[in-house]
Amino acid sequence: MNHRSGRHFLQIPGPTNVPDRILRAIDFPTMDHRGPEFAKLGHAVLDGLKEVFQTRGAVIIYPASGTGAWEAALVNSLSPGDKVLMFETGQFATLWQKMAQKLGLQVDFVAGDWRHGVDPAQIEAKLAEDTGHSIKAVMVVHNETSTGVTSRIAAIRKAIDKAGHPALFMVDTISSLASIDYRHDEWGVDVTVAGSQKGLMLPPGLSFNAVSEKALAASKTARMPRSYWAWEEMLASGKSGYFPYTPATNLLYGLREALQMLREEGLPNVFARHDRHAEATRRAVRAWGLEVLALDPAEYSSALTAVLVPAPVNADEVRKVILENFDMSLGTGLGKMAGKLFRIGHLGDFNDLSLVGTLAGVEMGLALAGVPHRPGGVAAAMGYLAEVAAAGKR
Ligand SMILES: *Cc1c(COP(=O)(O)O)cnc(C)c1O
After folding, report:
1. Full-model pTM
2. Atom of ligand 1 nearest to the CA of 173
3. Which of 25, 61, 271, 327 has the highest Cβ tally under 10 A?
């Protein structure tokens, strides 16, 4: 492999660029995870995560990718044959649903067009119909990473309450946590699933469950087999800052640093930064004369933007040209969107100039790949970023 000078632009929507501060924090000798020093680290990360989930309840950390935390949410709170309600918002919702099927749950999988989030009115209607309360849980992906479409979690909570239904509410925030406003307690979520390698700016390898009292109570009678994922042992050890088995110690050093960085910037500022970069990106896409996949402005993702590439050009050809010429990775089209779109990740450790560089790479790539478009996307984004700066809103 030839050396490529300068920084690789890793603009896929996760894993995201890991900031130097976090890389340095990880680069320390691994310590005894049963020793006296460890508990300080354990408490720091378990308590710090609560701020990010906006919860006072329990948080669990697994040495696993996000998929592990999906499984943990299901096996701890449900029983074989339980009926659950899930929504086809995109590839990740589809994969979580497949997992639920494999684990023996009975899934009512509501079809979707991959361009909209979950409709709260539809949830309300489905739950209101279920007068016998046979539906045990409702699962929603907050930010559908395959499409750049979000679902409105607060509105969905209201819909569940309006139906007066006792189902557990589980939300996948793997690509939204620490990028898009999310409130586990206020929005009455029972299990929140998250991962390390997206908004939290860490390498892959950690994933999380935030768990409500109601979900904890459900776990006492839930009958799915579980061992590695069992909340009970995790929570018992966590009280004293430890883990029942070997944690990913060095990633926890990184997590402690990431939480400190988020605290320094302030979560509201972190969310505003992501909103700003998403808006600037959409302005660039519109100026190019291209189309964003998300159709409803109320559901635009602030973590990534999916851009449709008009046929006959294959979107993966655009990605290839950009990687080869400008050393930037963009997200591929997943599942039924393969070849039809590319995804620009603008989440995690990112600022205005990294966005402008990213959009410049895309604009040059569109020209090189022969995608019919107008120039001026980067200028449109710059105009917006400068406007926000002039207004002192950043
Ligand atoms: C990345 C992602 C996942 C999968 O996480 P892994 O860490 O790859 O297992 C699941 N859901 C969403 C929304 C994601 O963005």
Report:
1. 0.98
2. 13
3. 61
- Which sign does the torsion angle of CA 160, 220, 78, 117 carry? positive
**What is the SS3 assignment for 92?**
helix
Using one digit for the tens of pLDDT, what is the confidence trace for 203-217? 999 999 999 999 999
C-alpha 174 – ligand 1 centre gap (Å): 6
Q: Is 99 in the pocket of ligand 1 (CB under 6 A)?
A: no
Same domain, 243 and 281: no
Ligand 1 pocket test target in 62, 145, 151, 229 with most atoms within 8 Å of CB: 145
Ligand 1, atom 5, residue with closest C-alpha? 66
End of a domain among 263, 289, 307? 263
Kindly state the DSSP code that residue 337 receives in the 8-state scheme: G
| Cβ pair 388, 394 in contact under 8 A | yes
Cα-based torsion angle of the residue sequence 13, 17, 19, 23 in order, rounded to the nearest 10 degrees: 110
The minimum-distance atom of ligand 1 relative to the CA of 146 is 15
Query: Residue 205 sits in a domain of what CATH number?
Result: 3.40.640.10
Ligand 1 atom 12, closest CA: 174
Residues 137 and 181 in one domain: yes
pLDDT digits (tens, 9 = 90+) for 266-280: 999 999 999 999 999
Please give the biggest Cα pair distance in the chain: 64
